[in-house]
Amino acid sequence: MGKAVRYYSRSGNTKALAAAIANGASCTAVSVDEAGAEIKEPVEMLFIGGGLYAYGIDKKLKAYIRTLDGNKVKKAAVFSTSWLSKHALDLLKDALKGRGIEVVEETCYAKNMPGVEELKAAEEFGKRY
Prior knowledge:
Layout: E1 2-8, H1 13-25, E2 29-31, E3 43-50, H2 59-67, E4 73-82, H3 87-98, E5 102-103, E6 108-111, H4 116-128
Parallel strand pairs: 1-2, 1-3, 3-4, 4-5, 4-6
Helix pairs in contact: 1-4
């Protein structure tokens, strides 16, 4: 079982964080609205993230989470970028737990566009799991 990174990004900030996590986890980051985003084979760790939009996570990300099978995803770790609030992290955790997926406590977050230090931390986050 390997690792997977899935994300949804409107501005590119979360995409940058996803790419750094994927680099650390030795896998590829795939947007949830791209072909190939479906988790077909079991994964040990799913890194999944998105930004906070109008106090919620994007509907495409919500819809994607509803397709996840708790039997195929052993554990998940969440990440997010936002202008103001880290609330998306809690929303992601709750949605994943609702699918029967174990979620690790540690999260990865960057305010706005991640800088060099945030990208380095994101890569380490990907390596840890």
